[in-house]
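Methods — Computational structure assignment.
A single polypeptide chain was analysed. Its primary sequence is given first, followed by the predicted tertiary structure written as structure tokens.
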Amino acid sequence: MFSAVEPTGRVVWSTRFDGHSPPMYGGALALSPDGAVLYALRRAEPGKQLTAWDARNGAVLWEAPSDLYFDSPLVDNEGNVYCTVRSQRGAHLVVVVRSYTQQGQLRWESRAPVGLTTNLCMSAQGHIFAYGKGDSLLCFDCQGSLCWAAPMLRRPELGAEGGVRLVLDSEGVVYACYSWKYLLAFDAAGNSLFTCELPGIPDRLSGVAIPGPDKLIVVGEYAVYCIE
């Protein structure tokens, strides 16, 4: 069941799905800037389906063709939606960034492949950041053109088993939790600011929070780190 609930606890609407398996695929919901459209990934064949609901009554507005989507959808200030998806390129399957309008029309699909274990994040200027295949941080503009690619650790023995989590601060600095115990920072032009190896046992880093100026909170599976 998929429901909308007021702050008072009153259920505004609920939508039931057919079948017995959970219809939603993890991650977070995304809301359009005007609050009218709600987005999420729904289980479908062959993988997942990007679906848009009317936030007022729960009616399905549109569904993108079923495909192998990853992570949660991201919405910009114009209502355009972005997500990562596995795409056929000749004889190969690669993961790319795909964008749809608020009405469900495909806007573009990035040419540069991105990594399997990434979340997207977006700056106030509309630039989209993703972990790139080949161990790099990628920056796209809102039209899908690659602005730059910044090399990361380039240490194959580490891999990205712990996943790569990206977050932006208010100054446009991109932080990447990388490979179990490393935190990397890049400025808006892709220049490396620092690489920090966290102390203690190797940890699966799950995210970064920015509670105030000059302070980072890094969340791991075994510990929480505060970095100044």
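Note: DSSP finds no helices and 21 strands in the chain.
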